[in-house]
Specification:
This protein is mainly α. The chain folds into two domains: about 60 residues, Arc Repressor Mutant, subunit A (Orthogonal Bundle), CATH 1.10.10; about 40 residues. About 80% of the residues lie in helices and about 0% in strands.
Length: about 110
């Protein structure tokens, strides 16, 4: 199975919506870099069961993102904040420091 590292981001955002077995299997596969056999031993299911659990979990994560779009919105907002910061750094605006501070606060909240 080829690893799509975007799955780790989706897992952070939507992981609680998966079954415990799916969440654990995906976490061990992507974040702990365990093999399917190692994961199977850890959660006491077959290698094929692990593979199916991961595939189903990935499918659910992608469906959640398709419907809710939280990760895409986060990326969009982050890109806009970065652009705003770059423009502020180049400007002579008298509110420059305060605006940069506010942008930093927003970045930390998202």
């Amino acid at each position: 199975m080829a690893k799509d590292l975007n799955i780790t981001i989706l897992l952070d955002v939507y992981g609680q919506l998966l079954t415990e077995k799916q969440r654990s299997a995906i976490d061990m596969y992507y974040n702990a870099d365990l093999s399917l056999a190692e994961i199977g031993e850890e959660i006491d299911i077959s290698r094929q069961g692990v593979r199916e659990s991961i595939k189903q979990g990935e499918k659910h994560l992608m469906n959640y993102e398709e419907k809710l779009g939280i990760v895409e919105r986060f990326r969009s907002i982050s890109a806009k904040l970065n652009s705003m910061n770059e423009l502020l750094l180049k400007s002579d605006c008298i509110y420059k420091e305060k605006l940069l501070e506010i942008a930093d606060e927003i970045s930390k909240e998202i």
